[in-house]
Amino acid sequence: MRCLTCGYSLSNLRSRTCPECGTGFKPTDMQFAPGKVAFCCPHCDQDYYGTTADGHLYPIEFDCAKCGVHIHMDETVMRPAEGYEAEDTEPHKIPWTQRSELGWFKAFRKTLGIAVMRPSEIGLGRPQRGDTRDALRFAAYSILLVAILSIVAQSMLQAIFLGFITAVTATGPGAPGAGPTMGMPFFLSIVTSQTLGALIALPFGLLVLWLWALSAHGILKLTGKPYQPAFATKRAFYYASGANVMSLVPCLGWLVGGPWTMVCTIKALKATQRISVGRAVLAVLPMPIAALGLGVGFIIWIFSTTLATIAAPGAFGTFNPDTETLTTNYVNWANRNKRYPQHVVELVMDNTVFLGELIQTNSATAYYDLVVGNFDTSATDDLLEPQRTQKFQAYLNALPKDILAYRLGDFVFYPSTQPPNQTAPTRWLIVAWPDPDTNAALGPNELVEVGLADGTTFYSVNSAFPAALATENSARQVAGLPPIPHPMNVKHQQLVMVGDEIEIVDDGNLIDDVLDDEGAGTTFDPVES
Length: 529
Hints:
Number of helices: 13
Low-confidence stretches: 170-183, 309-320, 504-529
């Protein structure tokens, strides 16, 4: 029950504005521990308790049982339920913040485990306050732990190595005792330099984390409004830095620690800011890449050349990690429900997929371009959950059963009427193709990603995509299925039906193919192969 901007307690407030920072708030925008918050009627103070996973009231609006006035959850006065403190209402707590109950070592060990193995849990709950002091302390101890253990391990290896050298040189001709005399000063100088390095590592490491978090939050602001303020981003980075303990893995530490820390940071930021994997990657990776480029002259040339080439339109194509996530979620949904969805809005309804994930990184497609039927799906974000579900369900009920293809955002979907366990693993389900109404045409060398029925994806250069589509349609013909259209020809508000006249691909050339003259209703423009 704290302000998402400054962390001020919102308990017992009738106003919907934080008295500390002036930011407006709504209880429905927040998360609570189920059953630990009393939502009180603003007219008679009758209390109610949230039972949903987010600790919200259900239903979200109703007539008060005591005074009879119709109230909404956002109108209620919040306070901790009887027997609970304000901090108990948080939906999730990092063990490090419970040091007084768990003990310092146990709290640190548990938090380190979360950082390494379950970094998404860092973003499950709201920060207990607007500052980052606890997270910063954890990061400092993590850096010291890695530095100290690294010194110990390296000193032991050096001692063993110098002991071997000593034994060899001591028995060499004309050099009795030379090894110990020359080895010990060298060994002490190495240990001294490593100790100084560890002392420098703490302030330097914290400075790098702070700059890294600020740069990531700045990128998030450039690519859209962050879900939480900057302190939440810094908090995610500080806790995720504990994953760097993987750098202590013998021999391979330098290959494991850095990359794994970046992976964990991406997951922590994704959960904290409620963003897609692609957007989290875009926010986290630039600073490490830039640091590597500044550190080594050769890497400067490699990265500057590669990034400049990638930045050129159509050079190496667009990497879109969102396609992999979308395909995985789509196939998992189908396996759970024993059928493929009529429309991807079914996944949006149960929060398996968020609307923002249907827009590719760097795409010109806007949120309000997400249109199905005759309504703007992005507008449903402003509706209450029951109204939103009702609107989507009405659209699904009106859908015909023989849809061949449709578009939502930057993705074209080819629904399968077969059960998941009877669908060929290589059957095409999803193609990432930027909305042609709002984006420039893809260049011949740009990449097109295709999601398959086994949950995997593959890439095709655009110039070779017609041949790949021809291969898919040949396989569909053998399976007795109708051919699918080129994704560029699938537009919003346009369902492609079985029986429509489409353009199919044959050996890399587009030819007309009328599947059913009686059912033909849509003619597509030719596509250059």
